[in-house]
Amino acid sequence: MFNQYNLDEIRDRARAAFIGMAIGDALGATVEFMTTMEIAAQYGTFREIIGGGWLRLKPGQVTDDTEMALCIARAIVRNQGWSTGAIADNFAAWLKSRPVDCGDTCRKGIRSYMLHGTLEMPPNEWDAGNGAAMRILPAAIFSLPDEQLLQKYAIEQAHITHNNPVSDAACICLGQLLHLAICGAEKSRLRRQIDGLVARFPTFAFDPYRGLATGYVVDTLQTVFHWFLRGKNFEECLVGTVNQGGDADTTGAICGMLAGAYYGMEGIPRRWQKKMDPKVMAEIEKLTDRLLDACPLGGNYR
Question: Nearest 5°: phi and psi at 143?
């Protein structure tokens, strides 16, 4: 089925997904942990990449969402294939570097690997945070268009830190949505995929939208789904998402990857691209191309 798609367009959408994730991360980080009312009082509608926030970031600086995704992408490229151990090694090196931020569940899982070599945390009903879902993009790109590979990669990268059925379902669904969007599916098709998740896990139901954007992966995806489906372009999707506040860097990163995959590079405002760290943007482009060249679909590029 994938042969019907323009391969150059797939490459553009995959790149836009990764860059969109970084932009959503950098935009949302400024208003992380603020309420919608606090954001409105301080900014009106918040829509510019200015840094600051509780992490006191530079404009265009990314956080753990993008940094952990980069860890996965680098591991795949360096290892010339999927290796959970190589990913965990990169997570450990990243944590040792004293990153600007790291969620508690991610930190716990990485420290377990560092101390005991643990590549899979035990199941935990409380580990349904968004830390595994936020970094799913490299697994989605590297598995194109194979859904069985996607599920394998999604779960293995997730379980390094998060072993929870709700987190697993979120990771797999996001990967499926990214596959569809990168390959040019319409929003109506993406909506059917989301409805399938809600049918299996009714807790993800987002209509009516409750307005919660916490680090709980259900709240995160409800916010992303609501604003992605409502938005008429990349900027509308992302601005609506981050103005919910809460865990805004992660909701922004996930909405950014999904909207980037859907709208492509032309849909991402140039003013936001120019605000980003050029080294991060250059590495994202290089890694995306390498991931695509190595994925099952990549044989069609050669």
Answer: -95, -5
